[in-house]
Amino acid sequence: MRNYVKSTGCLCILLTAACATASTVVYDNGAPAFGGVNVTQVRGADDFVLSSSTTITGVRFFGDTLPTPANFPGSFGGTLSYAFYNNSSGTPGSLISSGSSSALTGVASGSFYIVDFNLASSVALAAGTYWLEVHEGATSSTDDGSPIFWAGLNSAPASNAMLSSSLNTVPNSDLNFELAFQLFSDPATSGAPEPSTFLLFAAPLAIAAFRLRRKVT
């Protein structure tokens, strides 16, 4: 009986760990559909709307390389800089927060790559419209020379993403599509299991627990 308790206890710990790694998505701008826009030589930004006060701690970036997505890991320098802006008449306004994250890797997801990163400092936002800017490089005004693309959504909504004219300007040129990203309210872990993926972990562990119980009874 003691072995059963110990074994099932370990299984519960594994289940809890699997559940804990799943990040909570507080905003989802949509799934990637095409290559999008180069965010190494210029800066890209897209707006998002929060219906209530939210603290953002992580970002999921969907990346690509053209014309061959398989080149993404070799083309990605591993560093992304980011910035959050207030909304100003449908364009990025005043800067709220900025930072960078390094030693990042891309996790394959279909024809695209997922890069999850945590913010240097969490960003607390009230309900409203804001902008997220992402750029490959240590800062928004540096170019690491390995171009990657921020994947786009195959749509032409009323509010489009923006692109900068140079590395030294805030994105201000209207694109005819949106950009794919998600925002988290807890630490982001690249490739973290979504709820459906968690079930794949849970089911075998639950079966193992059942078999252990039958074995000792």
Write the layout of secondary structure elements.
Elements: H1 2-20, E1 25-28, E2 34-38, E3 44-50, E4 54-64, H2 72-75, E5 80-88, E6 91-101, E7 107-109, E8 112-125, E9 128-136, E10 149-153, E11 162-163, E12 173-174, E13 178-179, E14 181-184, H3 195-216
Antiparallel strand pairs: 1-14, 2-10, 3-9, 3-11, 4-8, 4-10, 4-14, 5-6, 5-9, 7-8, 10-13, 11-12
Helix pairs in contact: 1-3
What features would you describe in this structure?
It is a single chain. The strands form two sheets. Strands 1, 2, 4, 7, 8, 10, 13 and 14 form an eight-stranded antiparallel β-sheet that branches. The protein has 217 residues and is α+β, with helices and mostly antiparallel strands. A hairpin with a 2-residue loop joins strand 5 (80-88) and strand 6 (91-101). It has two domains: 1-22 and 193-217; 24-192, Jelly Rolls, CATH 2.60.120. The chain is built from three helices and 14 strands.
- Would you identify the regions where 5 or more consecutive residues have pLDDT less than 50? 1-21, 190-216
Principal-axis shape: globular
> Number of DSSP strands?
14
Query: What proportion of the residues is helical, as a percent range?
Result: 10-25%
Determine and state the CATH class of the largest domain.
Mainly Beta
Largest sheet: 8 strands, antiparallel
Compact description:
This protein is an alpha+beta fold. It has three helices and 14 strands.
List keywords for this structure.
217 residues; alpha+beta; Jelly Rolls; 2 domains; 6-stranded antiparallel β-sheet; 14 strands; disordered N terminus; disordered C terminus
